[in-house]
Amino acid sequence: MTEHILTKYHPAFTNQSRYLMLMGGAGSGKSFFAAQKILYRMKEETGHRFVVVRKVARTIRNSVYQQLKDVIYFHGWQDEFKFSESRLEIECLKNGNTLITTGVDDPEKLKSLAQPTGMWVEEATELSARDFRQLDLRLRGETETYLQIICTFNPISKKNFVYQQFYAREPINTFKLITVHSDNTKVGAAFGEMLAEMKELDPEYYKIYALAEWGENSNAIIYDYKIISRIPENVTETLYGLDFGYNNPCAMVRVAYYEKDIYLEEAFYKRRLTTPAMIDLMDRLEISKTDNIYADSASPEKIKEIQQAGYHVKGAEKSVFSGIGKVKEYRIHVVQNSVNVLNELDNYTWKTDAEGNLLDDPVKDNDHACDAIRYAIYSHLGKRKPTIYGHSG
Ligand SMILES: Nc1ncnc2c1ncn2[C@@H]1O[C@H](COP(=O)(O)OP(=O)(O)O)[C@@H](O)[C@H]1O
Ligand SMILES: [Mg+2]
């Protein structure tokens, strides 16, 4: 068996601590190993009821459950296990050991867990401290061998409970292993190259997913940028993003792009602008009447008024989460005197819920220029692919 286990994981394969913390970058073989260890124990030990957990139940089928199946087929063990595709469970035929899966968001199923004897928590940082405590308390079944919780995760943030509980202090009964993609001899060089490219594009991402080092600020929507003196001459195209406001600022940002580079410059950022006053300002700033302007589609009447003044303005594609993902695919450059744009970029953060978990929505405070930028980029470039951004592992 051990010849099929990546060398770096050998100590974790035999380790019997209550907590087996497998922290790593993307593609380092964490999930594959966790599945190997659990399935091996199902085959070789008796009296087991394993539970495999993720935060969200509906993600299980295509992630951990699929991974367990992949590992079974990889080892040619398919005749020794029975799959229950509808319940997402697996049974070892020769000894009756079972493995069930559940989401933390399925309290009924959690309550019904009968004395588990082992767990695997995939993407453990998705859980809250409370979620984890509930699971931990349940792991008290009788066993001839040992009770172990395997946690697999990327070190996304020091604010996460995993850091607080297992890394900010010296925890008891814990074995920790840190792995990076190069420890996984089964992935090709292209994967490492993809990660290497992130070093410049998104240093925080690189730190977490390539180096497997703890991220600092979980809430920041990091738009990493360089400051430049002016937009270069040779850009492919210039666009504008426009976010309306009255008591809030009305923000217009010039967005030029060339391949993977985006250049941003504040056109204006002003409170208490009526639509005629805004048109007047656009005229004075000599905003092009042929370049595309993408404006907040929630105000069609304002868009119409600006169109009637001769501008090529249209309603923007507003999907926030996908839009932000799109912007992050580019290298961003900001012209130095765009003070409001710079200020917003530095303070742009995700909302969190009461427990401090990240939501898919930015804090709506100070995001007018950020919205304008996203409108232009996502509406105009949303379907193009400069992308090298593969998330998570
Ligand atoms: N021991 C192994 N034998 C064969 N392939 C492996 C092994 N470990 C990992 N892999 C391959 O490497 C890929 C990435 O591993 P994975 O466990 O998904 O990484 P992580 O969970 O750390 O992101 C897997 O899809 C699998 O194909
Ligand atoms: Mg994984």
Walkthrough of the structure:
The chain is α/β, with parallel strands linked by helices. Helix 2 (30-44) crosses helix 3 (61-74), helix 7 runs antiparallel to helix 8 (203-209) and helix 11 packs across helix 13 (368-381). It has 13 helices and 17 strands. The relative contact order is 0.12. The chain has two domains: 2-188, Rossmann fold (3-Layer(aba) Sandwich), CATH 3.40.50.300; 225-381, Nucleotidyltransferase, domain 5 (2-Layer Sandwich). The protein starts with 9 loop residues before the first helix and ends in a 12-residue tail after the last helix. Mean pLDDT is 90; it is low at 386-393. The protein is elongated. A hairpin with a 4-residue loop joins strand 3 (81-84) and strand 4 (89-92). It has an eight-stranded mixed sheet with strand order 3-4-5-2-6-7-1-8. The chain has a seven-stranded mixed sheet with strand order 9-15-12-11-10-13-14. It has a two-stranded antiparallel ribbon with strand order 16-17. Magnesium ion (MG) binds next to helix 2.
Provide the spatial order of strands within the biggest beta sheet. 3-4-5-2-6-7-1-8
Q: Major beta sheet, specifics?
A: 8 strands, mixed
Radius of gyration: 25 Å
* CATH homology superfamily name of the largest domain: P-loop containing nucleotide triphosphate hydrolases
What does the overall shape look like? elongated
List the total number of helices: 13
Please tell me the CATH architecture of the largest domain by its name: 3-Layer(aba) Sandwich
* Count of discrete domains: 2
Indicate the CATH topology of the largest domain: Rossmann fold
Give the helices and strands as they follow along the chain. Answer: HEHEHEEEHEHEHEHHEEEEHEHEHEHEEH
